[in-house]
Amino acid sequence: xxxxxxxxxxxxxxxxxxxxxxLVVIVFAVQGWFQYEEQVELDAKWNDPMMxxxxxxxxxxxxxxxxxxxxxxxxxxxxxxxxxxxxMRMVVENNGKVPWQANPQK
Length: 106
What we know:
- With 106 residues, the chain is mostly helical.
- Helix content is 63%, strand content 5%.
- The chain has 2 domains: 44 residues; 48 residues, no CATH class.
- Strands 1-2 form a two-stranded antiparallel sheet.
- Strand 1 and strand 2 form a beta hairpin.
């Protein structure tokens, strides 16, 4: 007896629909898992000072040190910095101009 050759369309549609639903569920589950693990890691970093990233605090401390101390930028050209408090005082004393603008050389 000859068998009927053809595609079982309803079965293909059901398998495709179930596969799509399963794919969406897996994507949402993996995304939720990722966000959970990321939050656990962030909580661990915030609660453990040894794991914390100190780059920003180190950089801020270095910047504060640089604006509070006098040091050479380029000693060969005679360029140096002065503490920020001294610079603000000089600007106020010269009516809002930096010293080399207040007394221009002719």
